[in-house]
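Sequence, please.
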C-alpha cells in the first residue's frame, strides 16, 4: 500500500519513461507475432517460386504472390504443409492438373481448394 502512494510522487519525466517502457513491452508481443507471419510469408513465397519443377514454380509462385498476403496463420501453415510436406513435386502438379486424384486429406484442404480454383481460372480465364 505504501508503495502505491510513493509512486504518485515520482517526477513526470520518470513516469513518462516508465509508461513508454510498458507500452514497448506490451506491443513487443504483437509486433513479434507480426514479424513471425511476415517471415513465414516471405519463406513460403520464396519456396513457392523455387520448386523442383518449372511447372510448380509458375503455378505456386503466382498463387503465392496473389494470396499469401491475405492468408491467416492457419492457412499459411496448411499451405506450408501442402507444398513442403509428404507429397512429391510431380504429384502436386498432377493433382493440380487433374492427371491424378489427390488423397482425401489434400482434396479436403481449403488451401488446396484455393490453389485448385486459381489453377482452373488460369486454364479457363473467361470462367
Amino acid at each position: 500500500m505504501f508503495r502505491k502512494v510513493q509512486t504518485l510522487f515520482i517526477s513526470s519525466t520518470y513516469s513518462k519513461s516508465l509508461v513508454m517502457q510498458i507500452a514497448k513491452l506490451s506491443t513487443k508481443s504483437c509486433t513479434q507475432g507480426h514479424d513471425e507471419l511476415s517471415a513465414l510469408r516471405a519463406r513460403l513465397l520464396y519456396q513457392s517460386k523455387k520448386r523442383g519443377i518449372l511447372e510448380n514454380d509458375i503455378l505456386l509462385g503466382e498463387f503465392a504472390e496473389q494470396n499469401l498476403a491475405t492468408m491467416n496463420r492457419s492457412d499459411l501453415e496448411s499451405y506450408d504443409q501442402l507444398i513442403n510436406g509428404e507429397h512429391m513435386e510431380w504429384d502436386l502438379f498432377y493433382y493440380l492438373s487433374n492427371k491424378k486424384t489427390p488423397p482425401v486429406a489434400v482434396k479436403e484442404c481449403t488451401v488446396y481448394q484455393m490453389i485448385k480454383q486459381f489453377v482452373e481460372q488460369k486454364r479457363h480465364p473467361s470462367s
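Residues 1-10, 25-29 have pLDDT under 50 and may be disordered.
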